[in-house]
């Protein structure tokens, strides 16, 4: 009998359950094959590596009953956290401060004691950096990339991204009609951290007038002139999509310290910041702000994301079957393949200022405020 452990880490993302189901179903198929060498049992660790650390451990068997039909559901049946990094494990101190300690050797020991033949770590950039370190310490690990931000360079797309863009576009479409009716400027803030992909795709899909992204700092005076040009006798409207990491040429972005135990700062609130900047710079139009937030990560994945996630799950299991560890599954040129974890974690995928998508958006008349 061979044992495989699956976990989901970092922020959740539509499609995680489809990956889990893909792994479990492919493993079950292997067990029915006459040419098989071993039977496989698939387990899941609850809340990323915390399931292994906790006492008693929270590791569940991913039976057919547990995984049947879950590809349609958002979230993750294994739960997730961004507070279980074994290399920088957060320990809250008596004075309320957080100390980060390295528990990776302890984790490696526990995984060995549990006799796992393979570990599949489904997560974003941070999770794959953890995979790389654990692989270096001898853990037979395979990564599966996930994030709505689409900011991983070693795969052409991550699942969850399409769903986030669809949700953002649906929201944007609703704001357009009310902007027109009231002669207002509508600012809609979307997620994406340091990457502007969600904003850019939403702006093109929705037909925004302005798209502001982290990769292209904006000039507030240019934006005011652009907005004002769309008004005549107080009548007109404009729809702006702004990525949460967007910044003005002069000044900084809004972020707040992360929660206790989290390594990351929290973004969010740039819609309000932009609204104030526009008014301060003389914009006369009425402005309203909408932050769609975590709605972008919730609910059922689109068909595209279900397919991509399912294919990633099947591929991840097959890599384990072939003893190909230290790599991450990836989509390249319409093919599901794999890349080394070294390659997977080298660069991030950001929007290119002069790339085809930005140029096409400019061709459609969308202003980036640059
Ligand atoms: O990385 C995915 C993401 O949704 C980002 O777009 C966003 O900045 C962040 O996670 C929000 O994290 P949290 O769920 O911890 O608030």
What are the defining features of this structure?
12 helices; 2 domains; seven-stranded mixed β-sheet; Rossmann fold; 370 residues; alpha/beta; binds 6-O-phosphono-beta-D-fructofuranose; elongated; 15 strands; four-stranded parallel β-sheet
Strand order of the largest sheet: 3-2-1-6-7-14-15
Tally of distinct domains: 2
The top-level CATH class of the largest domain is Alpha Beta
* Mean pLDDT, all residues: 96
Q: What would the CATH topology of the largest domain be? A: Rossmann fold
Radius of gyration, rounded? 22 Å
What are the segments in which pLDDT stays under 50 over at least 5 consecutive residues?
none
- Any ligands, ions or cofactors bound here, and which? 6-O-phosphono-beta-D-fructofuranose
Give me the number of helical elements.
12
Strand segment count? 15
Major sheet summary line: 7 strands, mixed
How much β-strand is present in the residues? Answer: 15-25%
Class from secondary-structure proportions: alpha/beta
Overall outline: elongated
The CATH architecture of the largest domain comes to 3-Layer(aba) Sandwich
Gap between N and C termini: 59 Å
Q: List the secondary-structure elements in sequence, H or E.
A: EHEHEHEEHEHEHEHEHEEEHEHEEHH
Fraction of residues in helices?
A: 25-40%
């Amino acid at each position: 009998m061979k044992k495989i452990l699956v976990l989901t880490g970092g922020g959740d993302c539509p499609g995680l359950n489809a990956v889990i189901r893909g792994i479990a179903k492919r493993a079950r198929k292997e067990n029915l094959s006459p040419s098989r060498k071993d039977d496989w049992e698939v387990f899941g660790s609850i809340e990323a590596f915390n399931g292994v650390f906790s006492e008693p451990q929270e590791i569940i068997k991913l039976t057919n009953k547990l995984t049947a039909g879950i590809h349609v559901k958002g979230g993750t049946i294994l739960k997730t956290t961004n507070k279980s990094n074994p290399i920088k494990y957060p320990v809250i101190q008596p004075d309320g401060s957080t100390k980060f300690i390295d528990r990776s050797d302890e984790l490696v020991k526990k995984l060995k004691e549990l006799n796992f033949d393979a570990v599949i770590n489904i997560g974003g950039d941070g999770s794959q950096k953890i995979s790389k370190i654990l692989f270096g310490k001898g853990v037979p690990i395979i990564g599966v990339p996930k994030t709505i931000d689409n900011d991983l360079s070693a795969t052409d797309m991550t699942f969850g991204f399409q769903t986030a863009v669809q949700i953002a576009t649906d929201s944007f479409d609703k704001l357009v009609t009310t902007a027109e009716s009231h002669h207002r400027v509508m600012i809609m803030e979307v997620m994406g951290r340091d990457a502007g992909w969600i904003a850019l795709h939403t702006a093109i899909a929705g037909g925004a007038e302005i798209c502001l992204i982290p990769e292209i700092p904006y000039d507030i005076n240019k934006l005011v002139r652009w907005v004002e040009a769309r008004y005549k006798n107080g009548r007109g409207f404009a729809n702006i999509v702004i990525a949460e990491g967007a910044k003005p040429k002069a000044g900084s972005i809004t972020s707040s310290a992360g929660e206790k135990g989290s390594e990351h700062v929290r973004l969010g609130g740039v819609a309000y910041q932009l609204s104030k900047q526009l008014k301060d710079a003389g914009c006369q139009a009425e402005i309203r702000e909408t932050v769609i937030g975590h709605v972008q990560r919730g609910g059922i994945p689109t068909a595209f994301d279900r397919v991509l996630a399912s294919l990633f799950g099947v591929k991840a299991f097959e890599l384990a079957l072939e003893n190909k560890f230290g790599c991450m599954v990836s989509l390249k040129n319409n093919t599901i393949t794999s890349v080394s974890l070294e390659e997977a974690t080298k660069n991030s995928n950001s929007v290119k200022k002069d790339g085809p998508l930005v140029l096409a958006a400019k061709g459609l008349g969308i202003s980036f405020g640059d």
